[in-house]
User: Fold these one by one.
Assistant:
Number 1:
Amino acid sequence: MELPAGDYIGMRRDEIDTPVLLVDLDALDSNIEKMAAHFRETGKHLRPHSKSHKTPAIAHRQLEAGALGITCAKLGEAEVMADAGIRDILIANEVVGAKKIERLMHLATRCDIMVAVDHPANLNALNAAAAASDVSPRVLVEVNIGHNRCGAAPGQAAVDLARQAQNASHLRFAGIMGYEGHVVDLEDGAEREERASECLQRLVDARADIEAAGIAVGICSSSATGDYYISTRFDGITEVQAGSYALMDAAYGRLGLGFENALTVLTTVGSRPTSHQVITDAGLKSLTPEHGFPLVKDRNDLECHALSEEHGRLRTLDGADCTDLQVGDLLEFIPGHGCTTVNLHDYLYAMRGGQLVDVWPIAARGKVR
Amino acid sequence: MELPAGDYIGMRRDEIDTPVLLVDLDALDSNIEKMAAHFRETGKHLRPHSKSHKTPAIAHRQLEAGALGITCAKLGEAEVMADAGIRDILIANEVVGAKKIERLMHLATRCDIMVAVDHPANLNALNAAAAASDVSPRVLVEVNIGHNRCGAAPGQAAVDLARQAQNASHLRFAGIMGYEGHVVDLEDGAEREERASECLQRLVDARADIEAAGIAVGICSSSATGDYYISTRFDGITEVQAGSYALMDAAYGRLGLGFENALTVLTTVGSRPTSHQVITDAGLKSLTPEHGFPLVKDRNDLECHALSEEHGRLRTLDGADCTDLQVGDLLEFIPGHGCTTVNLHDYLYAMRGGQLVDVWPIAARGKVR
């Protein structure tokens, strides 16, 4: 991946062309340290989800801060992280189909890969491919703990799958995982705690069922940025997959979790049609709307109310006046959803003290498979 | 941009790994020819917007079918199209800021670039930069014809800007443009016609005002796939910027315009939790939701009702049963919004007769500026 042309390092914010994805390194470092401290204190393991940043430079910072390994959503991301020298990688989804399974086995020769399974046929296919390639990847049985997307049913189905995994000649049964994705972003903290706890109890119960069948469960993995602190209270849970905490976004910001917004899209005012309207150069091809429109950083008097492909439309709140803004001025958007916004960009511009200190390739972007 | 590994050409659909963006070449060719025929018949010019496909291979097909040149949304796209040998390029937005204006002047040495202007200060900046670089780019005065995003006000402001452009020593005043983006996708055809016509009349009136001031208007450009046929009825309009017609999407499909869906995301069934639910491997990182969830091609019994980052959730309609689908089976999604879906992918897989005949780099993807 080519780096942007020119000698960018040392540029001030107002020398950088827009739209561009910025990461505030002080905020990133603070977020990584806050989360790392929680895991040091609780004695649990953090395996940060890299789908949020897709950036090896950030994954390495998380590992240096004490993370056990990293989590990926798919093979293409895991391949990029293995290329970046990361050894302990969980693909927290099922890998289905002959082509992908072949890639997984190749990956198993380059790192200590671990993959989710939720179906006997998939487990058989993985074992046969591992035997043919003479590798022994780790597997986690995914249990459906309420999200109703993937995962074996808790109870007998999960126990049977764990036994099948343990008996598979070329797989290492490493434990179980669950994902309560339908509750991790509930804005009401008490409701989030109650509903996440119900899901996590199902996971811990599934663990107990499997252990009662005489099968040791080493890893029990779950959770996200919205409920990592709930998960670490459960004795049976050993590690957490939170990822958004590093960069954050406007949607997670509403949960009051104590992490800082490290991710913004720097954008230029292209037009100020009236004293209460601004048009900027960041739209749907620079940030995503599915978790709500972006916030305008340090401008509580402005709200984004529409995004077209290349333009953001802002208006003032409460009849305020924005004539201080002129064409060419800069604003920063805090994206509604960081994970999908990062996925639109090839580079992350790392800022400290108002200066560009590095340009990081978002190396796993574009790896759709 | 590296091509995907392996000798892909000649593969059948069921040999291609998913998720992946497919273009049906028969449908693409049919759409390009249908639109080209309309412009041959009306004697107007088509300058297809390349923001929809970002793919030089498609732009070249549009030019071969008779298009006058191409339209781009931003500099980064225009640079890619110039690299691909295309000469006549309109950037249908304002280019603001010293860095971008410098790039624009460099581009003017490589192709016959034309750019929108809507403000006297921007026009002055363009002229000064053109003088410094000894180039003479063309400019179109953008008129606000009702979209209220960018564009000079119709009437005196537009006339004054046209005069300033005509008098600028290093710019070639080429004409005017307007964009009625708020009405081009209205589903009711009669309402779309009425409201688009109001906007287009404003554009034609602005042209008359400028010509009444003794300034010749060569180009008068507007419109999109939803109203190209309305635009070409106006004597004063000379060319049209429609782009989505080539690939189409589910949202434009609802308008009944007679173009075929050429664009799909091929996706694999990863789970079928019940007899009326399917989980597939295409989510928000493979297609976009802002114009509605994708349709399932050739499966009127299934609807997508949710997208997470890496998964699509389908359910059957009217209590139907989908037990014919098994893990590993393929489906195709027709994206809700083609322009932003294409923007998530690096490659477009070109299919004809059920076989992969080419892999086209989506070369302008990732050019955020």
Note: Chain B touches chain A through 51 residues (CB under 8 Å).
Number 2:
Amino acid sequence: MEYRFSEKVANLKPSAIREIFKSLTDPTVISFAAGNPAPESFPIEQLKLLSDEIFSDQSVARRALQYGITEGYTPLRELIARRLKEKFSIGSESDETIVTTGGQQALDLCCRALVNEGDTVLCELPSFIGALNAFRACGANLVGVPLNESGVDLNALENALKTNQNVRFFYTIPTFQNPTGITATQETRKAVLELCTRYHVLILEDNPYGELRFAGREIPTIKSMDREGRVLYCGSFSKILSSGMRIGFLCAPREIVQKVVVLKQVNDVHTNLFFQMLCAEFLTRFDLDGHIEKIRALYRRKCALMLDALDRFVGENAIYTRPEGGLFIWCKTPDLSPSAPIVRACLKQKLAVVPGEAFLCDQNGVSDGFRLNYSMPSDEQIEQGAKILGQVFSNRSLG
Amino acid sequence: MEYRFSEKVANLKPSAIREIFKSLTDPTVISFAAGNPAPESFPIEQLKLLSDEIFSDQSVARRALQYGITEGYTPLRELIARRLKEKFSIGSESDETIVTTGGQQALDLCCRALVNEGDTVLCELPSFIGALNAFRACGANLVGVPLNESGVDLNALENALKTNQNVRFFYTIPTFQNPTGITATQETRKAVLELCTRYHVLILEDNPYGELRFAGREIPTIKSMDREGRVLYCGSFSKILSSGMRIGFLCAPREIVQKVVVLKQVNDVHTNLFFQMLCAEFLTRFDLDGHIEKIRALYRRKCALMLDALDRFVGENAIYTRPEGGLFIWCKTPDLSPSAPIVRACLKQKLAVVPGEAFLCDQNGVSDGFRLNYSMPSDEQIEQGAKILGQVFSNRSLG
């Protein structure tokens, strides 16, 4: 039989990252391609204890295994809202916070709530592939705005706001951006909010890595500067507790959240309730900030290891970012020529990286960069992988 | 600030069921309005044991808390596919089975994959509100096809297939339908498949209650009769293990599943992995069929209690179905007049039922029925609620 698909979906390709993951079944391949948190960062002992307690009290267990409300487990919503307020000055009287099935669901449902087919969404260039594909699946017209060292290029952003019709929102990861690791300066953030205000465009601020700072000074989120309800803020427990449990959240103007809740109800009714309760108990009884301190120390060490190895093996044969947090380093060819030959040569030498093309708005575009991850590989793999990268770059400069 | 929403979402109302649930915070209200499985049906002891084991093995726990693949945890997918094959003769060489975040996600993503705005989806009348709203959120044009005692009205179905343009699929719950409790006969199922084949229309067969038969003989699913890849089949563990864990599945032609996987990736990346592993272990190590037998016995007793009480208190003042399984009885006014006054009078007497309007394709339609649930209320509440219903109906026939 032949099947006819909806137009929005017919052209969607499986994510390039996903295809790379599938090729990683070869255990001799070193992967710098992951987007995963380090497995040693999961607080297994504490989760085991809390899980035991939930299952040991019949009435609590029955609640955890029964249907829940779409907005999320109320104590968890309150704990998240309080944490956002106290740590990040996020959330006004007119905002509401709901639990989502990972940060990804918040991105998808916000776009479904706001975007008609053909409407424009502005994205950083390069940007997170999962968000780009979610927006594509809504039929959005993606327009990329280049990044520089201090965040999005403000002239390019203004130009995009000025020249595009029906811009519904600007999607940004200001802190430890995926894939570049770049953190927008406070000045850039202020200017982004001002520009979007001037052009009446919403901001979707995605902050899955914000708590993973291991160097430099905290910079306020854009949402914390928002006085009029222009910013939708997404976060997640994926990088600080567990990614497999799929718990994220959205803090946004109540009117928008209400529409997202209606969509969430028809999408998955609610997020796994047992893990919402686990999460709430963890926040109440354990020291999440202390736990995050340990993850920061781990990534500080891993990132330094990778940068040191890159400095030794690659050096001036490439350009790479020096992130102050998060999971990623972005590496570019020094002459800004296409990076695809480098990526292919690495894979031949059994090093997997994510090609920059995956992060472009234009699915036929060409990139001069690729993404490196330091949270997943072992110390030895970091050394060995950087060596391969060094060889590939030096063969290239020789060839 | 004023917000502008996408057209598809702007007109979506929060589900009527959900609003009723919120009104149920009054503990003196007896609820026949639930759609929940009985809390005593959750196998807490077994899940506790398996959960303990996962958390006690570091490498297993790390896997359970890490990102997984979008299609679902491979052992669980295989166990579901094998069970569908062995127990229900479902699944051909060209089909694929994936795990979804509850059956609801499968309905939503199938519709997103297949339906362009304005395309028609045929639905039973009345039908499951969660499905109707999911289809609405995709911009589908809903056309209702009435049910009779043996399932969907075949003449009406043929007429709908003949007269509507761009019909993308027929959505049906042939077994213990929600909200009516009606089970389509084998003849009706065959005829549905033949009609949809003749008019080149897909079938979305939703079977969340199929394992809850407590009377009568098993009837083959429509999917089991499908030879050409016309039927998409959704199922769920919500009514046989736990609804709060949000694990369902889709078995459908590979080409369609591949598109659904792309959508699932941008929607929630994957379903809670810990509970996928728990589910797989349960299926491997415990006797799910034996567990389901106990749930059937429970609902057999509960349903008989409610029917007996209705027979005593309501009798011929109303028309109600006598289901052979599932969770619901459908009750109608004897003269097929609007049921809204009955529903309102019940709520005044502190009995909550779900008004039939919630289950219509036409959001401004009028219903002669309402839904009763027997899995959640206690034996005493069933007796007391039926008494209230009897009084309301007899006041009506007196008035």
Note: Residues 45-285 of chain B form a domain with the Aspartate Aminotransferase; domain 2 fold (CATH 3.40.640.10).
Number 3:
Amino acid sequence: MIKVGILGATGYAGAETARILSSHPDFEITAAASRSFSGKAFSDVYANMKGVLDITLDPPDSAGLALKADCFICALPHAASQSAVADLHKAGKKVVDLSADYRYSSTDVYESTYGVSHEYPNLLKKAVYGLPELYRKEITSSKIIANPGCYPTCSILALAPLVSKGLLEADTIVINAVSGVSGAGRKANINYQFCETDGNFTPYKVTGHRHTTEIEEQLSVISGDKINVGFTPHLAPFKRGMVATIYAKPSAVLSQDALDNIYNEYYRDEYFIRVRSASDIPSVKAVAGTNFADICPIYDYRLGRIILISAIDNLGKGAASQAVQNLNIMYGLDEKAGIGSMGLYI
Amino acid sequence: MIKVGILGATGYAGAETARILSSHPDFEITAAASRSFSGKAFSDVYANMKGVLDITLDPPDSAGLALKADCFICALPHAASQSAVADLHKAGKKVVDLSADYRYSSTDVYESTYGVSHEYPNLLKKAVYGLPELYRKEITSSKIIANPGCYPTCSILALAPLVSKGLLEADTIVINAVSGVSGAGRKANINYQFCETDGNFTPYKVTGHRHTTEIEEQLSVISGDKINVGFTPHLAPFKRGMVATIYAKPSAVLSQDALDNIYNEYYRDEYFIRVRSASDIPSVKAVAGTNFADICPIYDYRLGRIILISAIDNLGKGAASQAVQNLNIMYGLDEKAGIGSMGLYI
Amino acid sequence: MIKVGILGATGYAGAETARILSSHPDFEITAAASRSFSGKAFSDVYANMKGVLDITLDPPDSAGLALKADCFICALPHAASQSAVADLHKAGKKVVDLSADYRYSSTDVYESTYGVSHEYPNLLKKAVYGLPELYRKEITSSKIIANPGCYPTCSILALAPLVSKGLLEADTIVINAVSGVSGAGRKANINYQFCETDGNFTPYKVTGHRHTTEIEEQLSVISGDKINVGFTPHLAPFKRGMVATIYAKPSAVLSQDALDNIYNEYYRDEYFIRVRSASDIPSVKAVAGTNFADICPIYDYRLGRIILISAIDNLGKGAASQAVQNLNIMYGLDEKAGIGSMGLYI
Amino acid sequence: MIKVGILGATGYAGAETARILSSHPDFEITAAASRSFSGKAFSDVYANMKGVLDITLDPPDSAGLALKADCFICALPHAASQSAVADLHKAGKKVVDLSADYRYSSTDVYESTYGVSHEYPNLLKKAVYGLPELYRKEITSSKIIANPGCYPTCSILALAPLVSKGLLEADTIVINAVSGVSGAGRKANINYQFCETDGNFTPYKVTGHRHTTEIEEQLSVISGDKINVGFTPHLAPFKRGMVATIYAKPSAVLSQDALDNIYNEYYRDEYFIRVRSASDIPSVKAVAGTNFADICPIYDYRLGRIILISAIDNLGKGAASQAVQNLNIMYGLDEKAGIGSMGLYI
């Protein structure tokens, strides 16, 4: 068994990582750290895990933790991950980082987007953007993986097949995204209290969400040209899951058949990408609790536009299970190990 | 007290109409008809109304019902309203019809959209589209009001200020709309069972929802030119409410200030339209149970685009309370009577 | 219009009071105080009230507030109400207090239950327990009304008809109660975050909830003998509403008919009490948003036991609308004014 | 791999069984039958399973199905299971039946409870009640297992430690139970539509639920004396999970320590029973998606009563995962295989 440690183990993404790894055939959790709950058992914080993962939570001392495991998943908040990843890397450990700290190719965009300076520009160059369907080979040989954001995962996977072929007209892409409440993390905040959220639905950060630059950087790499996108997220009253409805104009004559062929071909060998049709449209329920990304390209003949529907679990393919997918790749394991089947329909 | 009757009183829109009218200062419900529950008390079907509205439900005989009230709200399904409205009109009664049957200016678009023929083209010409903020004067003098659809109400009110001034570039309008589950009506359908809907979120009828033609007809009238729109609805796990997030390119140089001025000016005298700002963004919770439409225009400086957020209660301003607003206008009453304050935040 | 002020106006019970009073035909809100949001508009905190109640929130200075209105609803936390009510009473104002501070007949039980000392024992003697169906006459002539707790309202109204006749065997009463999440108030607390509460259900304070002593004191008064009850509350994932399922053994031979007669007779003249039958069982949906208490007595012939089902809206009959009912009585108004019809089924 | 077939595979319990078995290390699903959807792929009905379980659904022909697998889980409705189980048994197959058809020791109680006659009294004698914690040995050697009902599983596991020792006073047991909506099954029914269920909470079948006789039969066996219980179920707005709050009087002097010892001792070797304390009270969230039963005994010193809190997943330990636990036992596999860790907290 490979020894794995988790930093930030009691946030939602960290806890989901712990839940997945606790029944993974190849990994054993030997360390789990939490600033708020160190000294308690993990199962004191997550009652569902009693008898399953009762490990005592460590304080968030990354140098000390490095002694306890071979590899780490770092689920700390943005900025806090910078030095933690650096410490673990220095100790020779493989790290999958769930924060934004190592996702950008340059410090400039990171710093202007997140409003903090980056102290480890050299490490940033070593990190690989952990979207396995696009960067599997690079992930295999890297020791720092920057796990993508949830909205970027959902958006990029949907757009990549068309953007990579230059089939979308520049500057027509609009991403309308909807997330479940777990995306806001596990913290006491009146806005996410049950009585405020249940029965509600609202857009937020209509023009300035931080994931916009991450999406644009990746699409620009895929395209070869600079791509800007409109991105507007919304909060909906469900716990986990995410749907992006993406609108764009094609730059060439297309058809539904052409779209279907492009998507089925592009993702032919990808177990975790399910190309769906309009009669079998993606939904949160089909992906919640899984590592699947369900994608449906639709050609609107009347208006000559393209609509892409993309659904993932924001805590799964958008965070924890994608992190485990990356770990599996880094260790040359079956990419599906521990994450092949985990959703609950009900 | 004016005597009012309700046809289709036990569907969600009909029942909501009954609930509002049961405490309206100027109307008395003297007839309520239901195909499924005739012979029962209204409060046998809606337990909340016990002691408030115990009227016995009539069978759906529009000619017979005409004898029982001065005016009617008709909440029947599409197609079924055609003859019911005709019967009531023939009997000299004022009618507000919640179906699509009298919403279009020509039978052609109606027939191709709804797949049924229109048997009363002459009545169709007499009907007025019941969006009071646009057609208040015509409503005053009409005896048949076609109450707008929920998505059209939400979309048209948001777009009218810009479309009426020609400020949007043709064929760039994309309406991404999200509705609560009550929009599907009160019927047994596995897709809307609690276990299927709770925790789920999904687009539906991505390119061909019937409200598209209704929105396009009204926007074209407002604009003076033919306007096509992309319209994609989604189903979200809340009971009542609706949000449209609308994307478009301006046809002239604009700014946030300019947008704010245009909207505040356009709706200056409208009690039920609340122009909001990005820091006070519309949400379902702010409009659920009310007749308000909350609208927020946002200028995206980075991309030179416009984003409009519009929220209504699909059963309120999108159906029942707008019907009562129309009735109030038809009778020269205070437009707010009975619908001035009805929302529950929690 | 009678001038009314609200203290603690931005908690859920205070805000619900404000919502009700804002459309009450006889009251005008002239003051609303909030410790957390003073200086803001009420509608900045509750977006639904924009254009309906935009009053600027006062700081919580009860002496100063006394100058602004004729009567007050005090929705402060327990202990904080003591001096606020005293200040307002000293200024000659009528007060309905939603806290527990003036609910008990003696300071002893209050102090041992709430763990704070009572500084105004003389005022405590003047206060009347504001359950109109039991104490209407006393409410009429009192200037301090202690509005009952939600669980006590729900439990006492169900038990009073049998307890008042000595028909229940001593010490067999078990109250199993379930509340919506708004009962926990409007505060940031991880336990009541959407992701923690949605999909969950749990008992809490299984043997020691503070409302136990309030229920026991009132039942003992009704009975003439000391009555102890088992009381176990549960938290369920809905926003507003409450159901008590009460089990007891009868002390005499009874039947379903006898039970029905007792309840219908006892509440014959009470508009807000709806006696229901097993085929028309009380539910949260039938009372949410209303001032009704729905009660159903059931005789279990097989086991010779009695089961009482009682449902109220914890924020309505359990707090805000009952407070307004009390105000109506204190001023000799129609008891139903402003609260006769306010529920949403959907 | 052992070949397993599922009858009634598209109901909620059947589908959950399919989901669990699709990733079980020792079983391979070789047949899945559905009356409503035969001919379709399983993943056409449950979109989450696309790419995971795409098997074509068979028509419900039990004799034909018998050729396709070594053992079967039968998730048909009550009465329909009788002959299906008989056919499979005749063909020499091991069967776990989720219906009530083989749960009772005599046909009399079954027939009076379910209102149908039992055509296979001889098979009934061969069937073992599949509660592994009580009947593990018998399960090992039986070929027909009657999987217990959800409410009985939840109630019996909580009461067994005390009832087996005669520590409860006869006829004082009251079981107040609350179930999620999936307990009603997957069928179109207005009562379980999202708009009817969300925000609602209601008791049902207050004195006559069919699981009462099943609970009483098992408790009587455990006790050695005839035991009657009061049992009142409630429907709450969550999808899966169940909590029983059980009230009883002890027949001897007890204490919290004594209770804790009794429960910890009784379930010392049971992985799937987690004895909890009042500070760590059972909840739906801790068991949803798992095979755990969380049980907490509480001694109410003030009233000298006992309160037991018991939580399970109605689709898990109350149906599908308990069925798999039974299958594991029947085949001598690790009892936790495939069901050791499956819950989602969020």
Note: Residues 205 and 302 of chain D are 31 Å apart (CA to CA).
